[in-house]
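HUMAN: Mind sharing a backbone?

ASSISTANT:
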Amino acid sequence: MPRVASHARAQLKDVRRTQILEAAARVFAWKGFDRATITEIAQAAGLSEGSIYNYFRSKEELLVHIPRQLVQPALMPLGAEAAPRDLDGVEQMLVGIGTAMVDRVRTYAPFLKVFLSALPALSPAVREKYMQILPFTYGPEMLERFLREGILRGLFRKDLNPVIAARMLPGMLILFLMVQEVLLGRTIVPYGYDEIIPEAVRVFLYGTARRGVQARQTRKRGRRT
């Protein structure tokens, strides 16, 4: 019984954190970081102001936790117990993650503009906290574990460096998304994401395949088209 109660409390805590962070993202996007208040965030979350401080000590701490909250849902397939059995499955999974990431960045683009403008003004302690929970670190770490497991299962080359490789695909997609959707807010290449994401995934993935597998996959694709 105590174990069930503990699990229920942990679930409630996660729900509350998500509720608060999503409300904060909306308020920051609407009012900007400087003008937004904890009171307004609490009202948007449907909670008391004191409840916010049970989870986050300041408005700055709230701000730096939002980006990781933003990317976590998109990365869930990397932690799934049923891993893809072949490169076709890996490609399908990575395209799904990329598509979900596009949706998240587009949805939160107004907040991300506020976040980028506010980040330089944060205190050194809060900036250090952000570096520890940086989403661009969290995502590659999950992909790195996935690549290491794939090497053991024979999906990827034995000489693949998973530390380097795991930072290539997120780097390509996130930089492109931030420039197009957040910084410029306009199309920079004449293609939709239904073409951009699969192309980025293929560029990444077939550099990780075992030698010989890449050629077979290419021939198989040729027969399909």
User: Anything to note?
Assistant: Residues 2-31 form the longest helix (30 residues). The mean pLDDT is 85. The domain at 1-56 is CATH 1.10.10.60 (Arc Repressor Mutant, subunit A). The chain is about 75% helix and 0% strand.
